[in-house]
Specification:
Elements lengths: L6 H8 L5 H12 L3 H5 L7 H15 L4 H5 L1 E4 L2 E4 L11 H11 L6 E5 L5 H9 L4 E6 L2 H15 L3 E5 L11 E6 L21 H4 L7 H9 L4 E10 L5 H10 L2 E8 L5 E8 L1
Parallel strand pairs: 3-4, 3-6, 4-5, 6-7
Antiparallel strand pairs: 1-2, 7-9, 8-9
Helix pairs in contact: 1-2, 2-4, 6-7, 7-8
Length: 274
């Protein structure tokens, strides 16, 4: 048992089991203080904070993402609520948001984020373009509940949330752009059992098989839900770019291009409906 002591010394001991930065965040969360205040404090750590922190350390050592333990994750400089009902928003998905902002020039565009999860993509777009009409959909009612709360807190309910699997939620409607970060990991990929991902919702990570099923559904259905000249933008795995470009061209899309994330991997592929 670790006894209460000054914050910085205690974190050094805890970092034997988890990364130092994670430990700092978890201690700040348990103590209900900022990380800076914890690191500069000479106060003894209260017993209840000790208990909270030690439990969080055990969970983190077991692979639970820090974001789930904190209940928060920053994305696009916005503070999102997250829970095990949704994927943890990741920096590479900001590329998808940026491409949407770059491609859609209409000040009053209609946009759909399919499989919205925490609402990160939809809310980031609505935050940057207050006059856009943004819709977020998800098959998970639990995920939509998280997204709705984030929408209320971050963009004053300016996003429409709809329940349904891919295009069933927007039947009969057309948009200027469709964006999605769908499940795309192959079912036998060992990354699914690695640190962090094994605690995230499996259905939001992998559609099964070779990981292409959801991407194929989105590509095949997009022409029925895009206006002429509308864009489909998809996040995908690092080895799937070639296949996606070929599928988009075969489905009648033009200006098909893939973009690399900060690590140099192809991460987002887009196409324009002729």
């Amino acid at each position: 048992m670790i006894s209460p002591r000054s914050g910085d010394a205690w974190i050094t001991q805890a970092s034997r089991d988890i990364a130092r930065f994670d430990a700092e965040l978890l201690l700040a969360h348990c103590w209900r203080r900022t990380r800076t205040r914890v690191l500069t404090s000479d106060e003894p750590v209260p017993e209840d904070v000790v208990a909270c922190f030690e439990q969080a350390v055990r969970q983190r050592a077991g692979g639970v993402p820090v974001a789930y333990l904190l209940g928060r994750r920053e994305f696009w400089s916005l503070d999102f609520e997250v829970s095990p009902a949704v994927l943890v928003p990741r920096p590479e998905t900001e590329l998808l948001v940026q491409r949407g902002l770059d491609l859609v020039v209409s000040p009053h565009a209609t946009i759909a984020d399919l499989g919205t999860g925490s609402g990160a993509i939809a809310i980031a777009l609505a935050h940057e373009r207050p006059h856009w009409s943004v819709t977020g959909t998800d098959v998970s009612t639990q995920a939509l509940a998280v997204a709705r709360r984030n929408g209320t807190n971050l963009v004053q309910d300016r996003v429409e949330w709809l329940h349904g699997d891919w295009y069933t939620a927007i039947a009969g409607r057309r948009f200027d752009a469709l964006l999605s970060n769908p499940p795309y990991i192959a079912d036998d990929d060992p990354v699914l059992s690695g640190d962090g991902l094994r605690h995230e919702p499996r259905g939001a990570l992998s559609p099964g098989g070779d990981g292409m099923a959801s991407l194929d559904t989105l590509i095949n259905g997009a022409p029925d839900h895009l206006r002429p000249g509308g864009w489909l933008l998809l996040e995908h795995g690092t080895t799937q770019g070639d296949g996606l470009r070929a599928r988009l061209v075969a489905r009648g899309f033009t200006s098909v291009t893939s973009h690399r994330d900060l690590a140099g991997h192809e991460r987002v592929t887009e196409g324009k409906l002729a």
